[in-house]
Design a protein that fits this description.
mainly beta; 13-stranded antiparallel beta sheet; 7% helix
Length: 485
């Protein structure tokens, strides 16, 4: 929607607005044309490095879980956790195959996320005098996208370990382990939507920009000036993300020798720790109670960026040479940018926790890569180490001129000299000069030759860690071993 009108002879107003909403498009399997084509490594060393195959499946995890190493490798868990053979496909690599058993992990991704966006714009201009115009404008933008994020995953380097005394382990598999003389096996599993795979991420952005300025003509000089304030608030919001400190602890489930109940091993060492044992054998096997205990409440990475800009410029043709008018432009400006990036969790105390080694919490099987991790929520960016607060500003003055050296005709340019210089004083790096010199030769109407030489610089942004000034990282001290509640 766009609307505008004049209010009297001196005031002009323009308004506009837009709204858009679209549902997400999720998954490929229901589409009859989809056949899981993918490029995989060629198992034949005499052939090309990669081949394009249909029905590409993973060999390192399934929705119900599978044994990925040792003498029992190749057993997967079907309905109700029943052990069944994992069937090889036609083309087989260490991680992928074409055909056979397994799943295509890319089949259930969102093709397009859920989307919502809206914006509004207002512009007001006032002709104060015949040579001076004042204006103000406002811009607001809002956008939301949502999609399912990467679900909970046991895969290298985060493979789970299942031990022979696991309370939920099928008896046939336990007997096979005893016969093979093994006490544990590596376990690969990708959570499905009906258990630990319903994690959802929402990315929300709200932007406000307000500008006020003027334009005035003083004889042959045009003067412009404006002030602008901008603010962008972004929130990356996660729901139903698995807590690493609880996921592997719940997986190490045993039978309480006193009561005969299924419990977490950690509960035997620390009674009342609240752990709910997790059955991961078979798609949809985890109980709602275990899923509720393992997954987090809402968490998000919240970021606010603010910007203030003030600039004044003057341009015109103050004098002429034998070849034509000399164009001159000069100005000065100031810019301040601030950043506040903070993680938020519910409860807030999660940000003070780290993933302790399994032996300190009374269980087994936590991958080494997770030990002492401050990222408590699986596959999210919410962690204390990304809490950043800082700002920088820059002052600058600049000027540029174009001087005609000769003209081909009274109204046509021929050879022009272009000169420019800019001095900027950055809070993070100090003052620096950038410059440019060049020649433009309009040989004929259809041919122009340009030569330039310059020294160019670019300011660092708030997204570049080496430039933040001042910079404050919120990093918790190394946690001491303690009882988990």
């Amino acid at each position: 929607m766009i609307w505008g009108r004049s209010i009297g002879d001196k005031v002009h107003l323009i308004l506009s607005g837009e709204y858009f909403q679209a549902d997400g498009i999720e998954g490929y399997p229901a589409r009859d044309w989809f056949n899981s084509w993918a490029a995989i490594s060629n198992p034949d060393p005499a052939g090309p490095r990669e081949i394009i195959v249909p029905n590409a499946h993973s060999r390192i995890y399934t929705y119900g879980g599978m044994i990925t190493g040792g003498p029992l490798q190749g057993i997967q868990f079907g309905g109700n956790g029943a052990p069944i053979p994992f069937t090889d496909g036609r083309y087989v690599t260490s991680t992928t195959q074409s055909g056979g058993s397994g799943i295509d992990p890319g089949a259930d991704v969102y093709i397009l996320p859920e989307q919502e966006r809206a914006n509004a714009f207002a512009y007001l201009k006032y002709d104060a005098t015949p040579t001076t115009t004042l204006y103000a404008q406002g811009l607001y933008g809002h956008s939301v996208t949502g999609f399912e994020t990467v679900p909970s995953l046991f895969a290298p380097p985060w493979l789970a370990t299942i031990y022979s005394d696991n309370a939920f382990l099928p008896a046939a598999v336990r007997a096979a382990m005893l016969a093979a003389g093994v006490n544990s096996f590596p376990f690969g599993r990708l959570a499905s939507d009906d258990d630990l795979g319903a994690s959802f991420v929402t990315n929300t952005n709200d932007m406000v920009s307000l500008t006020a300025g003027f334009e005035s003509k003083l004889q042959v000089i045009l003067v412009n000036g404006y002030y602008q304030y901008g603010r962008n608030t972004a929130a990356l919001h996660y729901d139903h993300a698995a807590r690493i400190d609880r996921l592997y602890r719940a997986l190490d489930a045993v039978i309480d020798p006193g009561s005969g109940n299924f419990v977490c091993r950690s509960t035997l060492s620390f009674p009342g720790d609240g752990c709910v044992p997790l059955n991961a054998f078979g798609q949809g096997a985890p109980s709602p109670e275990a899923v509720a205990w393992i997954t987090s409440d809402a968490a998000e990475q919240h970021q606010v960026v603010e910007q203030h800009i003030l600039e004044v410029t003057a341009q015109g043709t103050p004098f002429s040479t034998w070849a034509g008018e000399v164009t001159l432009m000069t100005g000065a400006g100031y810019r301040l940018e601030t950043l506040d990036n903070t993680p938020r969790t519910a409860p807030p105390g999660l940000l003070q926790e780290v993933v302790l080694p399994a032996e300190l919490a009374g269980y087994r099987g936590l991958p080494r890569d997770y030990e002492y991790s401050t990222g408590l929520l699986e596959r999210t960016g919410v962690r204390p180490s990304v809490a950043i607060e800082g700002d920088y500003d820059v002052w600058e003055v600049f000027g540029e001129t174009t001087v005609p050296l000769y003209s081909r005709a009274p109204a046509a340019r021929g050879l022009d000299l272009n000169l420019a210089i800019r001095y900027a004083d950055y809070a993070g790096s100090g003052g620096i000069i950038a410059w440019k010199t060049g020649l433009e030769w309009q040989v004929v109407d259809d041919l122009k030759i340009r030569w330039t030489r310059s020294r160019d610089v670019r300011a660092g942004t708030l997204a570049e860690p080496h430039y933040r000034f001042p910079r404050r990282l919120s990093i918790p001290p190394c946690a001491e071993a303690k009882r988990l509640n």
